[in-house]
């Protein structure tokens, strides 16, 4: 029984003792394999970037319906800053390149190392939760899992600057995932009424202080992040719908659409202001980042077969990418858990490796003569331009260095262009593909904010262009289009989204005629990859041990009923309860919800009155509205309470049981729980199929589900189901003989 | 009590008696105002196209999870045929135009009248359900309301040919709504395993014979319809998501995406085949129907103000459109309910009016000199071309006739173009706007399949171009862009969609740079119009009296609890029940679900066993698996039954109680209901807030919700909630003193 009640303990805010007890229990057992979630591996769960960072179930319940004032999100500022700093670094680097090669290398690598160390230090020492993409955490939050400090202001700060330094340090990482996380953090800051710690509070924001509105805000924030990152407003809405959000309703669609419309208008205005070029690389490409609009697309059967081949191989490579990322993350977790110092050292090692590759590989590549008619642009030593001179003689350029020693955006743009078929040699494309594919995998686990979109798009685009070059004799399609389709196949193979990727690619490239082919490739690569493993974000959520509720029940749940998984023994309060009993219960357990029972003499027989939340009980105890007699005095309490006392506090800001000071005399007094009891909880009969209970729990976004007895003459409540009771680990732990696939 | 149990009666398949009793009850009351749903107005509910056509609640329940094989949908064939016949008619008409004006008019009007009569006769005599847009019915079906014959094969047939004749007859109607309905009908035909009546059955389709898969298929069909109509695959997915579907899950997103991808590829192939022009107008414009891709769009503050103005006025006009459509529909209902003959006459009258306007109005318009450099194209007498000669002297053209005497697609295309600013005079645009706006409203209610998209886009585009011409001195924006924004504002004002309209317009026009402006206009016009009334489809659903469940609970429901609205008296069966009792209950009531109670001696006390469905009870009675003793023999029954006996029959194909022949001796025997009882029904406590019960009912897509008592010592079930119990009419009928807004 002890083990089962521990499962409830994870739910507590700050229930670290029970939590560590659980972890050490698993470790002592010695049966933890490489396939276990990292939950069991990491003792110091707040320091490792890929460890579980708390499993504080967020109480996303069906609350009352109030309107959300939608807000514009200024994530694009991050975008602008990244571009600017990146540009400064490139300026320095390219200038050095012309002098002496070793000196240039040390300047280049040194510059990268300093930026990388800065990013890693921020991440390791200030906010470990800011490491990684952030999309899995946002996805988990929107599913109802409130991991520790994942949306805190410190995370926001580190995410912004860490991402700027990380991208500028020349890692193969993107800024898209971090921008989604940034958007969600800003939304959360608004949702909890600002931050009291950092003296940023607004009074009018208190209207958002409930779970439902906060969830809506964070969905809008995620949509705004994608909209700003890809300059794709419709793609942002669809991303929020398809990947991020777990619950959806038409009002939310309309709110995210409004948010991204504001982002689009603001972005458009800023790009207009930056038209003169005074903002550096920001605004390059206008609203459509990679405009590859080329005449009508004609294709025949061999072309279609080539596209199908591209999709199948892309799907296989994409799922292999996920598999390797998984292995690398688990390996890095062993290093990262040793402490922040080790994290920084790992980042430095990867940075040096990246610099060596980026500077060393172009030496292998042959010089290409400049195409005719490109005077002035080729060869270039400037900060942008796709014909980099590197070590080549005049009128020649090094095509590999054009890809490696450039911004990611420029590299993607030159891969997507169809201008000249022979711009990139086959060997160059192959080397670049291997470089990006491997380095992308190696880089993801380190302690910097790192998005996955850009590495995947880069690898996919070079893979597609490579296939296009190889299939040149067979297919009439342009290599630029092959490149786009390759990127689509990789995205489909790793992230497993469909509509949103399709629209994002459309908005990135402005090539509507490609739509049927892009849809085809996405479908094929997703289908192929789904045969092997899960999407990369789902995989990370699982690996972190976050109790994510899928939107369908597992097959084996059909053979169980609700009471089979209810944990016991159950702790419940009487309607008018002794203060000491409540204090004891709150102190000893870490449950978040307690059933309240109406008992004689107030009613004829025992009845379920409802559920009281721990946070509300704490507020009630703090208010010391006690009575010496065991009588109902709920109306008095109601008069003396204010609704805002019970508003949801910011993350980790709520009252703790240890904050309360209650005298021995008060311990003997009574308190009427009726005013704070939710008298209308959702209930299921104990004989309801577990699969149906799981669907109910998931669809309505519950935190607690009461199980009531079917037969008369028993206590009015059998137990409470929480998120953890539906997790496969828990259910299969209780019934190890069940076949999980039946 | 009688009134309340009647509410359950509506649920029956074929419960016409109870239904008419209810209707006449309302009529006798004399209190039916103009604002009542038509449910109360129409006695002959199967003949009027806009009457309620039955309110047979579809049992969309949470069933087991099986995979759907997705299917390609060939709705685009309709598209092709419409274009072809339309073209034939235009050929005849234009040839006549050159001879004598009266003769030409009679040929034109006669041709229209014949086509209109054909469409109306099909609709009035064969399938009245095929009239109108069809989108509201599909939307209601996906919400769980299975209206009579709305997806039957006869409806499909009439929808296809009626739509072809209707569009060809020169009415201001679109083919988009009918194509969505066609897609849904085809999907339904596949979903019920073909049609036995028309000897079209496939064995492998029996896997779809459950509600969940059929619902998914019909969603895919609706998406395919939009994808084929607008050649907008992504727009189709989003339309299905935003407007049609009530429940959504990621697997469905992926299936609709697959369906529309197949539609896109097939369309692309057919357009490629038709490149030589041998398919008439089909394929004109390629995959992007109205390609208005024009250089970079620049706009300043006055332009933005002009766009805001356009959006606000568009929203007001859009909601006025909805209001007028509502009034016209209610007026026509009075005519249509008199019989099919009156319906046809109404259609003929509207057809003559349309012909007169289309032929008469251009005479008012002045002739315009042909623009320089348009030799050979201007003036034209051919079937397409935007410079129609009409009555004008050589080298002049009549711009109003270019809009009126053309296909709808060509008219939209010429309104969207920016080629020459002065192509259309202000007076022309104003006349065309009034013509389309008024005739669109007058035409919608008549007995032909008629879509709303095209009239709204036409009216919006002419309105936008008119505003653009008027604001010419203030704004630098192109009038073609104004026209597009005007169309967006009208669409937003009438249909109230956001993301899907945005993507559809994007895919129609291939102008990604307009995206921020289109989003802005859609948001403004939707917000403005929402202040006045509901979207046009929601309005039609309400007017037809279909019990549509909104995805949020009404405010006043928070003040009620579940038992407040439960209808009584409750009829329940014992686990082993006498055949006569069951037969009696099925005969006397029209309930669709009956609670089954476990009683002594089989259990210690009365317990809720589950719910048995009427259709399953009928199958059980027909099988005559009876016993003389009152004992449990469920396992014997299970052995002798096959699962497919209980598969869901096609619409209206199920067993009726009158089909059963049961002897008096058998009536005294017993039957064990356990094998057919759903022993795991969803339950709520009687004290659960009605708002929460409504959310549960809606989110899980239930058909029956059991209400169980809270206090011990009472029968184990209080009642059953169905869709009708949550309808505002029912709740406010029971509690007239409640303020519906609180």
From TrEMBL, chains A, B:
Keyword list, A-Z: CBS domain, Chloride, Chloride channel, Ion channel, Ion transport, Membrane, Repeat, Transmembrane, Transmembrane helix, Transport, Voltage-gated channel
Protein's membrane topology: Multi-pass membrane protein
A GO cellular component entry from the record: chloride channel complex
Transmembrane annotation, as ranges: 99-127, 147-173, 217-241, 304-324, 344-364, 429-458, 470-491, 497-524
Protein origin, superkingdom: Eukaryota
Record-linked PANTHER family: CHLORIDE CHANNEL PROTEIN, CHLORIDE CHANNEL PROTEIN CLC FAMILY MEMBER
Listed name of the protein: Chloride channel protein
Protein source organism: Brassica cretica (Mustard)
Upper classification of the organism: Eukaryota, Viridiplantae, Streptophyta, Embryophyta, Tracheophyta
């Amino acid at each position: 029984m002890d083990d089962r009640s521990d499962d409830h303990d994870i739910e507590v805010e700050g229930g670290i003792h029970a939590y560590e007890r659980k972890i050490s229990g698993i470790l002592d057992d010695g049966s933890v394999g490489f396939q276990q979630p990292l939950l069991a591996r990491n003792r110091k769960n707040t320091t490792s970037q890929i460890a579980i960072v708390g499993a504080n179930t967020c109480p996303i319940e069906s609350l009352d319906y109030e309107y959300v004032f939608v807000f514009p999100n200024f994530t694009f500022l991050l975008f602008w800053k990244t571009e600017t700093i990146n540009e400064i670094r490139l300026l320095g680097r390219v200038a050095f390149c012309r002098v002496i090669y070793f000196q240039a290398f040390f300047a280049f690598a040194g510059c990268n190392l300093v930026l990388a160390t800065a990013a890693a230090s921020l991440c390791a020492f200030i906010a470990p939760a800011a490491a990684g993409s952030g999309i899995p955490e946002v996805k988990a939050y929107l599913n109802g899992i409130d991991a520790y400090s994942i949306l805190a202001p410190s995370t926001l700060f580190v995410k912004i600057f860490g991402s700027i330094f990380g991208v500028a340090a020349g890692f193969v990482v993107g800024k898209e995932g971090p921008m989604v996380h940034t958007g969600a953090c800003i939304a959360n800051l608004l949702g909890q009424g600002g931050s009291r710690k950092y003296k940023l509070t607004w009074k009018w924001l208190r209207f958002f202080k409930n779970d439902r509105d906060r969830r809506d805000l964070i969905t809008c924030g995620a949509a705004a992040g994608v909209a700003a990152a890809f300059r794709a407003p419709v793609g942002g809405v669809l991303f929020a719908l398809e990947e991020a959000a777990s619950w959806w309703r038409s009002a939310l669609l309309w709110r995210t659409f409004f948010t991204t419309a504001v982002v689009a208008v603001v972005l458009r205005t800023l790009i207009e202001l930056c038209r003169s070029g005074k903002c550096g690389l920001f605004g390059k490409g206008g609203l459509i980042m990679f405009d590859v609009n080329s005449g009508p697309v004609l294709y025949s059967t061999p072309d279609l077969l080539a596209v199908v081949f591209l999709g199948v191989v892309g799907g296989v490579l994409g799922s292999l990418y996920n598999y390797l990322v998984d292995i690398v993350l688990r390996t890095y977790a062993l290093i990262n858990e040793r402490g922040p110092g080790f994290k920084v050292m790992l980042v430095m090692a990867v940075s040096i490796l990246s610099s060596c590759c980026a500077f060393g590989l172009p030496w292998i590549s042959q010089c290409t003569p400049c195409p005719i008619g490109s005077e002035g642009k080729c060869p270039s030593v400037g900060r942008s331009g796709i014909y980099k001179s590197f070590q080549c003689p005049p009128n020649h350029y090094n095509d590999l260095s054009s890809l490696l020693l450039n911004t990611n955006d420029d590299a993607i743009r030159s891969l997507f262009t169809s201008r000249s078929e022979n711009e990139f040699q086959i060997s160059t494309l192959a080397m670049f593909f291997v470089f990006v594919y491997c380095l992308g995998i190696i880089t993801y686990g380190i302690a910097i904010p790192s998005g996955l979109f850009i590495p995947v798009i880069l690898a996919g685009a070079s893979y597609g262009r490579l296939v296009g070059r190889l299939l040149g004799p067979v297919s009439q399609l342009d290599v630029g289009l092959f490149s786009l389709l390759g990127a689509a196949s990789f995205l489909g193979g790793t992230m497993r989204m469909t509509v949103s990727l399709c629209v994002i690619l459309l908005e990135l490239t402005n090539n509507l005629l490609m739509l049927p082919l892009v849809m085809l490739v996405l479908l094929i690569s997703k289908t192929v990859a789904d045969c092997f493993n899960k999407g990369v974000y789902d995989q990370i959520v699982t690996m972190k041990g976050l109790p994510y509720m899928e939107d369908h029940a597992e097959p084996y749940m059909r053979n169980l009923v609700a009471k089979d998984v209810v944990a016991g023994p159950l702790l419940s309060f009487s309607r008018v309860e002794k203060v000491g009993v409540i204090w004891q219960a709150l102190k000893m357990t870490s449950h978040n919800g307690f059933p309240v029972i109406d008992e004689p003499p107030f009613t004829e027989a025992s009845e379920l009155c409802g559920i009281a939340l721990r946070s509300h009980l704490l507020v009630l105890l703090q208010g010391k509205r006690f009575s010496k007699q065991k009588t109902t005095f709920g109306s008095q309490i109601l008069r003396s309470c204010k609704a805002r006392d019970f508003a949801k506090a910011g993350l980790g800001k709520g009252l703790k049981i240890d904050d309360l000071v209650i005298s021995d005399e008060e311990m003997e007094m009574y308190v009427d729980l009726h005013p704070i009891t939710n008298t209308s909880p959702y209930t299921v009969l104990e004989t309801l199929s577990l699969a149906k209970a799981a669907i109910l729990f998931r669809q309505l976004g519950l935190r607690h589900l009461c199980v009531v007895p079917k037969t008369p003459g028993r206590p009015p409540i059998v137990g409470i189901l929480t998120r953890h009771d539906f997790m496969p680990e828990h259910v299969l732990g209780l019934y190890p003989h069940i076949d999980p696939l039946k």
